[in-house]
Amino acid sequence: MKYLTIFTSFLFLLVAACSSETQPPADQSGAQEEPEPTAQESGPPPAEVGDGSGETPQFVEESDADPEEDADVEKPIMLAQANPPDSSRDWKFEQGKHFFRFQSTQPVVGGPDKIEVAEIFWYGCAHCYDFEPHINQWADSAPENVRFVRIPATWNPLLELHAKLYYTEEVLVNNGKIENPEAFRAAVFNEYHQRRNRLTSEASIQTLFERHGVSADDFRNTWNSFEVSSKLNKAKDLAVRYGISGVPAVVVNGKYRTGSSNDVRGYPMLLEVVDELVARESS
Fold first, then answer.
1. Is the preceding omega at residue 35 within 30 degrees of 0, hence cis?
2. What's the pLDDT band for 140 if we cut at 50, 70, 90?
3. Residue pair 278/115 in contact by the 8 Å Cβ criterion
4. Domain total for the chain?
5. Is the residue at 273 inside a domain?
6. What is residue 283's predicted lDDT score, i.e. its pLDDT?
7. 152 part of a folded domain
């Protein structure tokens, strides 16, 4: 008489830069002392997913039966699961350490035709000021499949005022009202960090534009335009989606964020991380 013994086992899995806290509010009375910027992001990073290493290929045999000895039998068909693009490469930088990956892909400024690299910055951030020549040089030699954009930070009234400055500048450049965009951008940084003009009011910002050849009418019409307002609202939305609480930060294709909150030491290393993230998206 045969006896069947049932063994049941249970396995229990124990699942068990310049920051938003350090910036001053807008002061409409004129220039003020420069705030102490910090390189650390203070806000919590967006949730991460996975470990970035890809899935281990799994193979499934068509049949477990032994082939007959006297018959010509085809070998079992091996079906491999598709690998993520980065599974076949040994990447230098680690997810969760050198960069964060968002739980879901977030919107970008442009379309899906290129890989978007977005620098989030503030004109008043000393680290953004230092980062400027590095990111400019990187952008000049970026691959053809990359679109580089800038998104101004907006977490308090002063930053929002400077974000409006940036988008007014962007629209005037596109309309041909600012002949040398690079020189104007450098002038804004210098106005804040060298001339100690904190640009805390619309009037002080208008004076800066006029000093660089923009008429009062062109400035006011652009400053108050629907186009600038729309761009500013989108920047606010993206800042929330990207979890931006410190600058400079870089977001690659709405999927990855890197910056001073990660274990990234120095601007050259930061741009190496960006290059690798672009390669991940390109592969």
1. no
2. very high
3. yes
4. 1
5. yes
6. 84
7. yes
Domain that holds residue 128: 39-282
- Residues 105 and 254: beta-carbon distance below 8 Å: yes
Q: Please state at what angle helix 226-242 crosses helix 216-223, rounded to 10 degrees.
A: 50
List, for residues 203-256, the tens digit of each pLDDT value: 999 999 999 999 999 999 999 999 999 999 999 999 999 999 899 999 999 999
pTM for the model stands at 0.73
* pLDDT tens sequence across 51-78: 444 443 332 333 333 444 444 545 444 4
CATH of the domain at 269: 3.40.30.10
Quick check: is 263 in a domain? yes
